[in-house]
Amino acid sequence: MSEPPLKEPAPADELAEAEAGPRRKRKPVGWSMIFIAVLVAVSATLVYRRDGIDGVLKILTDDLWLFGEILPRVLAGCLLGAFITEILPHEKVSRSLGPNSGLKGLLIGTAFGAILPGGPFTAYPVAAALLTVGADFGATIAMVVSWTLIGYGRAVAWELPILGTDFTLWRIVISLPIPILAGALGRFVYVRMYPKGEPT
Predict the structure, then answer these.
(1) Euclidean distance between the first and the last CA atom of the chain, given in angstroms as a whole number
(2) Stretch (H or E) spanning 13
C-alpha cells in the first residue's frame, strides 16, 4: 500500500489571516448616514424658506471651512486606528478584552479609557480598532464611557483648576462604577441580540 502524500504546510500569509480571524465588514451607507442625510435635507429646506439661497450658501461655506480645519485630525485618527489594528496582537486582545474576559476585561477597558489621552479623534478610532482586533462590545463600551467620565486629561486641564480638588476627586470616585456597569449591560444586550455572534 502506498503512503498518503504529505500535506504541504500552509503559507505564512494564510496562517496570519487565520490567526487574525474574520474582519468586520463595514457598510459604506448605513441607517445612520441615511438618517443624517434626511436631517440635512430637511434643515436646508427650512433655512431656504426662511433666509433664501444666501442663508443656505453662508451655512455651507462655514461648514466647508470647519470641515477643512478638522479633516487633518480625522485623517490622523483614522490612521491611528488602522495602525493599532495592525500592531496589536489579536490573541492577547481577545483574551484580555474579548467576550470571555469577564470582569477583568471590563476593568481593563475602564482603566485604559481613563488614561487614554486626546479627544474624540483619538478615542473613537482606538475603540474601533479594539473591536476589530477582538475586543467585545462590553469592554469597548467600558473604555469609551471611562474616557468620557474619568479621562485624566479633562480632569487635569479643566476640572482641577476651575472646580478644585475635592469636587474633581469626588466626581471621579462616584463615576468609577459607571463604565463597568455600562460595559456589563452592553455585553448582556449584545449577547441577547446576537446569540451566535455578530452576523457577517
Answers:
(1) 45
(2) helix 12-20
Tell me the per-residue pLDDT of 63-85, one tens digit each, with 9 for 90 and over.
899 888 888 888 888 888 888 88
Residue 8 reports pLDDT greater than 60: no
Report the amino acid identity of residue 79: L
Q: How far is Cα 173 from Cα 71, in angstroms, rounded to an integer?
A: 36
Q: At CA 194, angle to CA 20 and CA 123, rounded to 5?
A: 55
Report DSSP state, residue 99. T
Cell of 82: 488602522
One-letter amino acid at 120 equals P
**Looking at this protein, which amino acid is placed at residue 185?**
L
Helix (H, G, I), strand (E, B) or coil at 199: coil
Which residue in 23, 196, 187 sits closest to 97, CA to CA?
187
**How is residue 98 written as a grid cell?**
474579548
Burial of 120 (0-12, 13-18, 19+ CB in 10 A): middle
Confidence band, pLDDT 50/70/90 cuts, at residue 174? very high
CB 129, CB 81: distance < 8 Å: yes
According to DSSP, residue 106 is labeled H
Length of the chain measured in residues: 200
Nearest to 77 by CA among 143, 123, 133, 122: 122
CA distances from 18 to 15, 21, 90, 102 (A): 5, 5, 11, 25
Integer Cα distance of 197 and 178 in angstroms: 26
Q: What's the rounded Cα separation, in Å, for the pair 158 and 37?
A: 35
